[in-house]
Specification:
By secondary structure, the protein is an alpha/beta fold. The protein is built from five helices and four strands; from the N terminus they run βαβαββααα. The chain has helices at residues 35-48, 64-75, 127-133, 141-156, 164-183, and strands spanning 21-26, 55-61, 83-87, 118-125. It has a four-stranded mixed sheet, sandwiched between helices. Strand 1 (21-26), helix 1 and strand 2 (55-61) form a beta-alpha-beta unit. The longest helix is centred in the last third of the chain and has 20 residues, at 164-183. The chain is globular, with a radius of gyration of 19 Å.
Amino acid sequence: MSDQRPHVSAPRRSGGDGVPEVFCSDEQESKVIDLPRWRDLVLATLMHEGVRGACEMSLYFVDEETIAELNKEHMGKIGPTDVLAFPLDAPEMTESQGPGTPSRGPARPQADMDDVPTLLGDVLVCPTVAENQCTTHAGNFDDEIALLVVHGTLHILGFDHDNDESTAVMRDHELSILKTHHWRGNAPSIFRQDHDE
């Protein structure tokens, strides 16, 4: 898998009252993608990991050209990859006072930071790369997409695979989520989480 980020403890983020929301978009034409199904898996992953409250995350399915450009720009790597994750921090809302800035009057209350949803980040999955590697990785296209969606979502939550310990923790969480929310049982015998990069 691709995204190399500094490992941090997996946060249990909340943006106040509300529920997590996931925006999904299919921006490629090579493979048919069941957006509601993968949206549900992202939501299940967030809930499985203890994420509660008003937060937002996006899941995009993109073509090889798009993911190759982003892989080069953000990761410094050449060529298309299977998944990229871009975690975001919660937005900081501040009101500056100065020339030209409208002042807060009686009809403009103080901003309530508890009502601001936490922006978790964006996950991008490339279905054609997933299809090309699935037989030597997760086993089939369906399981490959599920693994990449969960893997990217866990990156958004701060998991990484930059050393043996963090890799083992991340894979344990992936497997637990897939068993509970994708297979609803044990992993198929051909399923693998690792592959040659």
